[in-house]
Design goal:
heterodimer; A: Rossmann fold; eight-stranded mixed sheet; 12 helices; B: alpha/beta; Pyruvate-ferredoxin Oxidoreductase, domain 3; seven-stranded mixed sheet; 20 helices; 39% helix
């Protein structure tokens, strides 16, 4: 149904290794408010997908309900998309990727979707470690229903109407680490330099990769007194490091011409995440340190961004289930239906 | 109480391991060629509450609960008084000798005191095991009394403990101890006797949850998601254990099926639906409360047109109700489950063969119709063992429905709409994620969409899709198992029933014929939407009795709607049992005989036309 360019035709100028141009990663036009942080994330995601040479025909997009969940329609329109019901994105992504674990799964959810109605599914997809890029577009507010606080809104933050939030925030990154997630990052919708390599690294992770992206809502949560406004986030963003990502087995190409060597995390496929330290020391392979970092940031009112925790060796769900190389969805009928003799043997036992 | 025609009741406390002993007793009778109809009535509890295991022995092959008890093994002091009070005159009662003082006196019952406690102590040195092993003692006692073949009983004990060889000797010894005691101290029954027949040849004993699980595996299911809930849990268990042997590559250990115990029923439904969307043959199994939780996602699957199989093993009541008792109370809920305009396809198996065959068919229908398919069992069908003909290997190949491959898309020049109706049967075409063609993708949403799968708020574009869904539902009607109709010549009465009511209705018809001279036609509904044939059938009878195991006569209500245009709805009479116990033929027969009589004060106005003379004379 898509009118996009045939990826099998000769490579266009500026094409990537998949033979596609940046435009091939576009989707339908966004219907979100002009200036929405979510649209920036969509844009960075398109860049990351393009730069990572992802084939849209080998990817699938999942979302729940909310402003964020609409955005799966706004990129990669040559990929199947499943926009289901509120809060169930982790469950539907799990089901679809059980059927075909060879797809690149991209799940987009919001803070209402993930931290309220779907919190139960969120923690359980993390326990299962389904191979999925799980992007939380986190604006601390319910946009589509016009400005109620979400469960990630900071204690004491003010609504547009001036109401104070009296409840503590759920930190999706801390929850992720506690639930056993092997890739936990936080970023800001306005930070292309940080978010694009994080997204590319997340695509190579073997299990669930959570990126909690702070994404200001220009309509309902961009006022003074809000801790999710553009101004507040820019003033309190504390990037941990500069992130570089080198895919595949290429030589460690992160040039090191500016003094101190970066921390390098190698993924099982040979990709390398290079992290150049900024203000503070943080080894994202240290789970305890990662939790401490988040708690300290909370106490200081900082927004720590970057790769917070990584366990490159985590075992994905399809391996726990001992599924074979052929996706369940592609099994031939003879693999799906046991033989006549098998039924006869069972009947003999029940006689 | 003739030979090969009586009922045994074992009354025990749950958690004492009596089920294995009861199955040995059951299977031994079955192996002697005599038909059996077992019913296990058990509490929602792990140990300490009353449980009753009924074994109906019927040379005529009636397997509904009989409602009468001829032989009681009385091992539960909590229920002794009522269990004995309910015995039929002339019945036999075996009880623990030490509890003699607590046994109520009845002159018309023969009491056999048995020193169960002493007997088990003698054969089981480990005291903590005695409460389990004592069950095999009563197997020996009863086995002797009713004349079972001792070697067959031994063989069944061996079969029951095939996986636990360390427990085999102990249990065999317990049977022998009971047998030897009874042979020396008790008479063999002159009436309650099992004599060899040839009425169970080539038959099996299986429960509906296992038969359904097998059907799902032979239907090609590749994803099962579930959350433990009585009475569907044993379906998941059976699926898992059969999958272990049928769907694992012996060399690599790789599985061709994913089984996920989910965090709740919402996830369970979401995973199964999305797996169906992505091309797996996906299913989930639950009971009423789980189905309530799933309803939003079910509506999504209906509207987004995603294949998925939902098994509902119904239990009794609203809310938590009685989880271990049977009912058919989910019918109306299921047929329109979820908000807005939804309507679902429902399969209603009544036998083990149908549990198996309909499960297979459910996957083909789900793929063919691209919609959720509901398979409605109930606790009676699902958890009780049933005698059955052997399950037959499916004759038809797997049907994956209208799926466009990359080659198809190439031929179409990429020109297709996900929600269009090119074949005019209401069924659109779909593609599977990962299909290597640039035009394969579409965006699936539960929000308003057009034929091109684009978001729309346009009234006409919206309505076009939901009207096509109605057309699809009409197409479904013709693809479903038709009602099974047995017209009695010249009958004025029609009985309509479904699911586990079937054996009680079969028996009730025979009884109404022989005792009340009432000939009844019988229509067993096997699927929803209802068949078009029902209107004519109902019009051909004066009265239509609809048997429901729910308070509100849910099938009768659906029939009333379906029959309204024909003007036959006034002929409907609803018969309802909803106390949670499996339906009896007595209940059905008495309701029909009573209602047939009460209309005019005489029952003969409904007597079959060809027998009128006989009754009036």
């Amino acid at each position: 149904m898509s009118a996009a360019r045939d990826p099998t035709s000769p490579a266009a100028p500026g094409a990537n290794a998949a033979g596609l141009t940046r435009a091939d990663y576009r989707g339908a036009p966004s219907t979100l408010c002009p200036g929405c942080g979510h649209d920036s994330i969509t844009n960075h995601l398109q860049t990351a997908l393009f730069e990572a040479d992802i084939s849209p025909l080998r990817a699938a997009k999942f979302s729940g309900i909310g402003c964020s969940s609409k955005t799966t329609n706004y990129f990669m329109n040559q990929s199947h998309g499943l926009n289901a019901v509120h809060g169930r994105m982790p469950a539907i992504a799990t089901g679809a990727l059980l059927a075909n674990h060879t797809l690149l799964g991209i799940g987009i959810s919001g803070d209402g979707d993930t931290a309220s109605i779907g919190l139960g599914h969120f923690v359980h997809i993390l326990r299962r470690n389904v191979k999925l890029v799980y992007i939380i577009e986190n604006n601390g507010v319910y946009g589509l229903t016009k400005g109620q606080f979400s469960a990630t809104a900071d204690l004491g933050t003010l609504s547009k109407a001036g109401e104070r939030n009296e409840l503590p925030a759920i930190d999706c990154c801390a929850v992720s680490i506690l639930m056993g997630c092997g890739f936990v990052a936080r970023s800001f919708s306005g930070d292309r330099k940080q978010l694009v390599p994080l997204l590319k690294a997340a695509m190579q992770h073997r299990g669930t990769a959570v990126i909690d992206v702070i994404s200001p809502c220009v309509t309902f949560n961009d006022h003074a007194g809000s801790t999710r406004s553009y101004d507040y986030v820019k003033a309190h963003d504390e990037p941990l490091h500069e992130v570089g990502f080198t895919p595949g087995c290429a030589a460690h190409a992160v040039a090191d011409d500016e003094g101190e060597s970066p921390t390098e995390v190698e993924l099982p496929d040979g990709s390398v995440i290079a992290l150049r330290k900024l203000e503070r020391e943080h080894d994202p392979r240290d789970r305890e340190a990662a939790l401490r970092l988040l708690e300290q940031a909370r106490q200081r009112g900082e927004l720590v961004t970057g790769l917070i925790y990584i366990d490159p060796a985590s075992r994905p769900f399809h391996e726990s289930l001992r599924l074979g190389a052929t996706p369940l969805a592609m099994l031939p009928d003879e693999k799906l239906r046991p033989s006549r003799e098998a039924l006869q043997a069972i009947m003999a036992e029940l006689a | 109480m003739p030979v090969n025609d009586f009922s045994i009741l074992v009354a025990t406390v749950n958690g004492t391991g009596s089920q294995t002993a009861n199955l040995v007793l059951l299977r031994s009778i079955f192996r002697m060629g005599v038909p059996v109809g077992p019913k296990n009535v058990f509490p929602s509890n792990i140990s300490g509450l009353p449980t009753w295991f009924f074994i109906r022995v019927s040379k005529d092959g009636y397997v509904a609960r009989s409602g009468q008890v001829d032989l009681l093994v009385c091992l539960n002091p909590q229920t002794t008084a009522r269990d004995i009070a309910a015995l039929r005159a002339g019945a036999a009662c075996f009880f623990e000798e030490r509890l003699r003082d607590e046994i109520p006196v009845r002159d018309d019952v023969t009491f056999y005191p048995v020193p169960f406690t002493d007997l088990v102590a003698a054969c089981c040195p480990v005291s903590r095991l005695r409460k389990l092993v004592v069950n095999m003692v009563y197997v020996g006692v009863v086995g002797w009394h009713i004349g079972l073949d001792r070697d067959l009983v031994r063989a069944e004990v061996k079969k029951a403990f095939a996986a636990k060889p360390q427990a085999l000797d102990l249990n065999l010894a317990a049977v022998e101890t009971g047998w030897a005691y009874a042979a020396s101290n008790l008479p063999q029954s002159p009436e309650l006797r099992i004599e060899r027949l040839d009425a169970t040849r080539d038959m099996i004993i299986i429960d509906g949850n296992s038969a359904t699980a097998l059907g799902c595996l032979f239907g090609g299911c590749s994803v099962l998601t579930w959350y433990p809930i009585t009475p569907s849990t044993s379906l998941g268990d059976a699926f898992e254990s059969y999958a272990e042997r049928l769907r694992v590559d012996p060399e690599s250990g790789e599985r061709t099926v994913a089984i996920v115990q989910s965090e709740d029923e919402l996830a369970e439904a979401g995973m199964a639906i999305a797996a169906g969307w992505a091309g797996a043959r996906a299913m989930t199994a639950t009971s009423g409360p789980g189905l309530s939780l799933m309803s939003e996602l079910v509506g999504f699957a209906y509207y987004a047109e995603i294949p998925c199989v939902f098994v509902d093993v119904q239990r009794l009541g609203p809310s938590t109700g009685l989880p271990t008792r049977t009912a058919q109370g989910d019918l109306l809920q299921v047929v329109t489950l979820s908000h807005g305009d939804t309507q679902h396809v429902v399969l209603l198996p009544a036998t083990m063969e149908e549990c198996f065959a309909f499960a297979i068919r459910a996957f083909d229908l789900a793929d063919r119709l691209q919609t959720p398919i509901f398979l409605l069992l109930d606790l009676d069908l699902g958890m009780n063992p049933w005698m059955s003909a052997q399950l037959e290997y499916p004759a038809d190949p797997i049907d994956r429905g209208k799926v466009l491959t990359a080659g198809d898309l190439e031929r179409l020049g990429g020109d297709w709409y996900r929600y269009a109706d090119p074949d005019r049967d209401g069924i659109p075409y779909r593609t599977i994620p990962g299909t290597p063609h640039r035009a394969a993708a579409y965006f699936t949403r539960g929000s308003g969409h057009s034929e091109a799968a684009l978001y729309t708020e346009d009234p006409r574009a919206y309505q076009k899709v939901v009207d096509r869904l109605t057309r699809k539902y009409e197409t479904a009607r013709a693809l479903l198992p038709p009602p099974e109709i047995d017209r009695a010549p010249a009958a004025r009465i029609l009985i309509v029933a479904y699911g586990s009511s079937h054996p009680a209705v079969v028996e009730a018809r025979d009884r109404l014929r022989s005792r009340n001279h009432l000939e009844c036609s019988y229509c067993r509904i096997r699927a929803l939407p209802l068949s078009d044939r029902l209107a004519d059938l109902c019009a051909a009878h004066d009265v239509v009795f609809v048997v429901d195991q729910n308070r509100d006569g849910q099938m009768a209500q659906l029939l009333a709607i379906a029959l309204a245009p024909s003007g036959c709805a006034a002929r409907l009479r609803s018969i309802r049992q909803y106390d949670g116990w499996p339906l009896t033929a007595d209940f059905v027969a008495e309701a029909i005989a009573g209602a047939a009589g009460s209309t005019t004060g005489r029952s003969d106005h409904l007597v079959a036309r060809n027998r009128e003379v006989e009754v009036q004379a």
